[in-house]
Design brief:
By secondary structure, the chain is α/β, with parallel strands linked by helices. The chain has two domains: 236 residues, Rossmann fold (3-Layer(aba) Sandwich), CATH 3.40.50; 33 residues, no CATH class. Strands 6-7-8-3-9-10 form a six-stranded mixed beta sheet, with helices on both faces. The longest helix is centred in the C-terminal third of the chain and has 18 residues. It is globular and about 45 Å long.
Length: 272
């Protein structure tokens, strides 16, 4: 889809998140998602990616977390402390890390739970379901199977299909590649790009696999220890020497070993 650079749909400004009233996890994180954009949120495990997504979808409360500073606006409305079901109705839906399917329900029953907040008739519901099956033909073939007996890739498809049933404007995708074979990851991201271009859905995806995330997004933010340490277009980040070294595993030309002083100086400059 063509990115509308004049329209910011999600705007996060200097948010801080504290767990248990003591542990500071996010330290002044700011980011934007434009209409029609796929934005990657990158960083190592524990950098604050999932916490950022849960701050938006307001799922922190269950983990005793709170946004204590800053603002989060969606289409210029402040959504901090919105009820999660209201957020889904407003157009924000999160696909959780680890997929979280209802294993005792069939594939189709899982997908239909995504329309829970929509007040629609059966005709519209069936049309939405068929749209999901158009994107995920594998799921149509397995619609009567119990979700607990499907593969990890199929469960990820179920989770995204369930999100699509809520008719979202923005999907928060948390670690979609986790535990999946490379071929399945490529398939999932191809569908994400297709949804973005065809259905006018924006994505904010948190991903440790920097390579695949930058390849399938237009803009990226890198988090370390709860701070945004770098941001830019995906192309700029892919070509950045620090990103290549720390996240893509490509060493600098003149580096003899990882103990090279230049490596540490650069690291210090970046994180300063």
């Amino acid at each position: 889809m063509q990115v509308n650079e004049s329209k910011t749909i999600l705007d996060i400004k200097n948010i801080e998140v504290i767990y248990d009233h003591v542990i500071l996890v996010l330290k002044g994180v700011s980011l934007k998602v434009l209409e029609g954009q796929i934005v990657a949120l990158l960083g190592a495990n524990g950098a604050g990616k999932s916490t950022t997504l849960k701050s938006i979808s307001n799922l922190l409360k269950s983990e005793r977390g709170d946004v204590t500073k800053g603002s989060i606006t969606f289409y210029e409305k402040n959504i901090v402390n919105y009820d999660p079901s209201i957020l889904v109705s407003s157009g924000i839906v999160q696909v959780m890390e680890g997929r979280h399917c209802f294993e005792h329900l069939t594939v189709e029953e899982n997908i239909l739970t995504g329309a829970f907040t929509r007040k629609i008739n059966s005709k519209t519901l069936n049309e939405s379901l068929e749209k999901v099956y158009n994107y995920f033909p594998k799921l149509k073939n397995r619609r009567k199977s119990l979700a607990g007996y499907t593969s990890g890739g199929e469960q990820q498809m179920i989770a995204i299909g369930r999100a699509l049933m809520s008719d979202p404007k923005l999907i928060l995708l948390d670690e979609p590649s986790m535990g999946l074979a490379p071929q399945v990851v490529e398939e999932i991201f191809a569908i994400v790009k297709d949804l973005n271009s065809t259905e006018n859905v924006s994505f904010l995806l948190a991903e440790q696999n920097t390579n695949i995330a930058l390849k399938n997004s237009s803009y990226g933010y890198i988090l370390e220890s709860g701070r945004v340490v770098m941001n830019g277009s995906s192309e700029e980040l892919s070509n950045n020497a620090d990103v290549k070294e720390f996240y893509l595993g490509v060493a600098g030309e003149n580096r003899k070993s990882f103990k090279d002083a230049k490596h540490y100086r650069r690291r210090k400059r970046w994180l300063a």
